Amino acid sequence: MAGYILRRLLQAIPVFIGTTFLIYFMVFALPGDPIIALFGDKTPNPAIVAQLRAQYHLDQPFIVQYLIYMGGIFRGDFGISFSGQPVTEILARTFPVTLRLAVIALLIETIAGILVGMIAGLRKGKIFDGTTLAVSLILISLPVFVIAFVAQFVFGVQLGWARTTVGTGAPTQDLILPAFVLASISFAQIVRLTRSSVIETSGLDFVRTAYSKGLGRRRIVPVHILRNSLIPVVTYLATDFGVLLVGATVTEGIFNVPGVGNTLYQAIIRGEGPTVVSFVTVMVLIYLLVNLAVDLLYGLLDPRIRYVK
Amino acid sequence: MKIRRYGVSFAALAVASALVLTGCSGGGASTPATNANTTAIITTNGSEPQNPLIPTNTNETGGGKITDNIFAGLVYYDEKGAPVNDMADSIETTDSTTFTIKIKPNEKFTNGEAVTADSFINAWQYGALLSNKQLNSYFFADIEGYSEDADSPLTGLTKVDDLTFTVKLKAPAADFPLRLGYTAFMPLPSVALTDVAAFGENPIGNGPYKLASTGAWQHNVQIDLVVNPDYTGGRKPQNGGLTIKFYASADAQYADLQSNAVDVIDQIPDSAYSTYQSDLGDRAVNQPAAVFQSFTIPGRLPHFSGEEGQLRRQAISEAIDRDTITKVIFEGTRTAASDFTSPVIDGWSDSIEGSDVLKYNADDAKKLWAQADAISPWSGTFQIAYNADGGHQGWVDAVANNLKNNLGIDASGAPSPTFAQVRTAITDRTIQTAFRTGWQADYPGLFNFLGPIYATGAGSNDGDYSNPDFDALLAKGSSETDASAANKDFQDAQSILFKDLPAIPLWYSNVTGGYGTSVSNVHFGWNSVPLYYEITKG
Asked: Global pTM?
């Protein structure tokens, strides 16, 4: 087990180098000069542009820029944004907010999704099952910004139950509404995954055996059926956690969450290489770790899966 | 004004037009409302400043909204854009070249340091020096000693005594005192220049407001300003402070306004263009602003120089139905242009000789185009380049359709993915089409809309336009000592532009905004920013 974990962590090193290289290259290849854009519709003084380009190493060839950046990373220096803040500070400020948002959303979709999916699966073909299928289909079809705007207008503006945007310090109660919005689509996916998985597992031999041994439903459903149905769901949740950390740009924008998605979006628009690459690098690391955690979880859920050295 | 990208409308303005921030807030002192709560904090929208809060390095609205409220320059602008002395006691000149500036005694920064001639001289020297890489350095270009390609001190600045200094310009500029309200000309305390980076994070100013505490700038969240009790100028706040919340999208701030989570906003998302006036009633704001939109046709394009070029440019201008486009596409949040400046600027006129060329006249357009074809037949496609991240597609397509239908030529938009890409192509002159251009005034004067853009060799003369008669009229206007005589010269200069049409004027952007039920006395300044110090709450 320990050997397996070590090997996985070592594998992360080339992935890390490869992704930073790719991302850096992509930012580098973005058309247009971000320094010229800093001046807006005014045409800048070429001498100042040249000096600013030198300050951000933008006058160097790509590979030199990349090596300077990587050299900095190993000294804990992730570069400086155009507004003069160290990127490490920006990371430290935004990731906790997005992480809290992601965790709340994940909790909502996991608890609600598995519960509803399980009940629907156990009552296949009944009214509850049909309704669940219909509702989840609707949720899946709706783009997230539609759900976000509607939720913001109804609960924020009209009913006044929640704040329309996230307030200072991003208090957790302000994050609940955006978390529900983020969770809504994944919730529908989890319901469907759990339902079909539960239906499939319910028909397997070992479940019939358990019934014939005289075990009660209270024991069979959680221990035999649910546990064995969760592997696809856990896989999905892990990917989804990554997506929540990375892809909440739209929702964060609508609710004005000072998180990763928002900040990264602005940085891409401005062509701030160090900010973009550092954010994506941290995202890649998180993704790698989450995936490792999931693979380890498989072993706990299904004893047939064993990790050998 | 710059980069708030999300919503389309403002993105249009922000990205598009004007990465340039506009001058100060201003306005005469108002009488305090009787029931006003002078401790109430006003909340408003803003965006994360893109640069440290150094006035000479702040060229976008996100930072400008803050620096204009925490610093006080020699003058500020009132609601109509007229300059009012702020730190200045007097600004005098006899030849529009040398200015003697006296500063009011007993003014101080919030750290107790006195505002003196040195506070201005040192700040300006810092801002102008090439190696300091300040985004606003070109504002000092007219002062003697300025160099744009070598470090060179401003020799035109001379200290007379603690409260007096003189400014000597390279050439007469009658509107120089008018420029002094712009952010770039703010004074700095001496501590600023010992550690600029730290100062940019926690600036110390002399304006109507100050930072509530060290670290009041919470990045990407908000900045908290409180009243500066030491400020004695005409912008005395009628409230207890100002909290500027940074929004990532115009939609979010509009939702906050509707739920009373923010008091005043100066940008309506275009998703609400058709509804906000009925949503907000008389709390909605929609008035012309000092923002001029156009597209530029560089003279180097084939068929667009000489007499043929003049005819084609006039034909294109007359083929565009500005009234319909502003009404249908912009829901009345733009005002069709009738000159090259803006209606909020003193000296603006909608009846300058030659301005008929901005009136929609499809028949005449067709005739002019045919005359140009007689000189040299047209071939190819007429394209207008724009950045696709700025919400321009709607109007560009509409203009292209106008040209197609009225001139019978092939016309289309040429989108580029990002603002940076378009600006780079424009700056290095590789662009081979017409392109979208916008200008947001830095200070409320006609010259600011003309000199920097159309004068021969001017900094933002992206179309490389050059006409000696035009240059001569600008110089004449700049050396006048009488403002109305100067404005007359600038109007005459525009008559030449109407013949040559280096850029095709389209419309003026309006400021769209609104405010909540708990605040009153909300007025927007000439530069589209609310006069926060006048606002009362409760």
From this structure: 0.83
